Amino acid sequence: MLCVVGTVPDPDFPLALGPAAMESGRIVVDGRKVPVNRGTPALLGAALSAADVLGLPAVHACLVGDIGRGDGSRRLYAHLERHLADAPWTVLVFHYLQPDVDWHNRVLFAAETIRPRPVMIADAGFMYAAKMSGQAPAYDLFTPDAGELAFLADETAPHPFYTRGFILHEEARVPELIARAYAHENAARTLLVKGEKDVLADERGVIETVAEPKSATMEAMGGTGDTLTGLASALTASGRDVARAAILAARVNRLAGRLADPTPATPVEALIRHIPRALRQMLEG
Amino acid sequence: MALFSLFKKKPKENDAAAAGARGADRGILIFENTSEVIAAENRLKAEGWRIRVMGPPPEIQRGCDLVIEFPLIEELEILRQLETAGSPPLEVVPVTGPLLQPVNLFQTVDYGEWLMVRAANMKICAEKASGIIVNISGGGCPDVPYLAREMVGKALDTAPAPRAIGHTLCGYALELAYQELKRRCSAS
User: Fold this and answer.
1) For chain A, what is the domain count?
2) Per-window interface: B 57-86 vs A, CB < 8 A
3) What does the alpha-carbon distance between residue B165 and residue A32 come to, in Å, rounded to a whole number?
4) Sign of the CA dihedral A195, A250, A247, A36?
5) How far is it, in rounded angstroms, from Cα B122 to Cα B111?
6) Is residue A159 helix, strand or coil?
7) Is the separation of the CB atoms in A127 and A158 below 8 Å?
8) In this structure, is the dihedral angle defined by the CA atoms of residues A249, A254, A258 and A262, taken in order, positive or negative?
């Protein structure tokens, strides 16, 4: 079972736990609704679209409102610390959460008591905290973009905001940055680097690159990285190994993007609407 | 008081930077969260203090931190002003080692009708002709979706600034990208 943990940009959104559904472009959890436009709701939208095609059991969500003050994240962290040990999750995804090393460690230790051990995926703020805590190798998959990869590669940076200038986040240097991130043990067991080309890597280096179909404007769209992580999560929950799931996710995300024919002003909902068709096409292809 | 005023009124160079370069004693002001750092930075700069927003030293990093660096000799007057404003720091710590520098590199992508600027992990894209912000992406802190919700669809000149409504380092990075995009759009 897949569980997605993250925040929504509404300070009044309470802690909402349970199966997630998508209704008229909104994510619904525990009777609470939130638009699928970016962030964790976009990740969930992609995961739910893929889960429907893959015939997965219900996707669960642990959501809370947080607009950057960290109060909602801390409430969610406290809940996870108390209850994760009894959770039935086989794939656990952490997303937009306030980076906080102490809380990260408490949640990670709780997650590691789940039996059997779930596949652990981290992106966004929780990935930042995982790297800063020195616990990155405890995760199965990180999904950074080129800028976040530079942050993983900079062993001194506690946040992408402090990545040192000489560690340039240029796509041509992705293999070098991947090697540096692994050399300092600041990467998950598998990396899927999102960009003009999506790059799958592990500690041995680049495993595979996905460059097609190409849509130059996808980088400017908010949420396309979130949908990629959501697809990788759902495909992992379908029983595929993490690396295969990540590569297939990259192909499906790109195809859904091309089907949406986006401009930089296109909202990510347009891409999510095309995920079922793109996934079926890739599975049949 | 007159002594402190003397320091304040004659900032011939970036005091904090100069102190750092000379190896003189510097201090950092530590606040509860990034929003309070930004508010204190605004207040102190408006009062004429030349301070720098920097990254904290490793021993006090928690995750999403900024601190204000200042020459330690000016501590009392700066603290007095912040206390008068009702926003004193949690702690004042002397530092001697180098502090982390915020990112200062920008990448720009021209999509024809649209222009995108990236600073660190944050990207912002606007339509050139209208100045309307069409997308905000990247980042990982929870105020990024909130900032996108508040800014997308609004003009660069009228949208709320990330430094006014953001709370995290991602919000601060978006502020840098936003200012650079405004500069480039107004120049074109």
Assistant:
1) 1
2) 58, 61-65
3) 25
4) positive
5) 17
6) coil
7) no
8) positive
Contact between B173 and A128 under an 8 Å Cβ cutoff? The reply is no
Enumerate residues 6+ apart whose C-beta is below 8 A from A21.
Answer: A27, A28, A29, A48
Supply the CATH number for residue A28's domain. Answer: 3.40.1190.20
Over the stretch B114-155, which tens digit does the pLDDT of each residue have?
Answer: 999 998 889 999 999 999 999 998 889 999 999 999 999 999
Query: Is the Cβ–Cβ distance between A27 and A41 less than 8 Å?
Result: yes
Q: Which of B98, B88, B10 is nearest to B48 (CA)?
A: B10
**Which residues make beta-bridge pairs with A4?**
A61, A93
Please determine, looking at this structure, whether the domain spanning B2-95 carries the CATH number 3.30.70.
yes
Residue B187 has a CB neighbour count (10 Å cut-off) of 6
Which residue range forms the structural domain that includes residue A233?
2-284
Write down the pTM of the prediction: 0.88
ipTM summary value:
0.89
- From chain A, the residues in CB contact with B65 under 8 A are 158-159
Q: Is B131 on the interface with A (CB under 8 A)?
A: no
Do the chains contact at A67 and B172, CB–CB below 8 Å? no
Domain with CATH 3.30.70 in chain B: 2-95
- Both tokens of A284, joined, read 């049949």
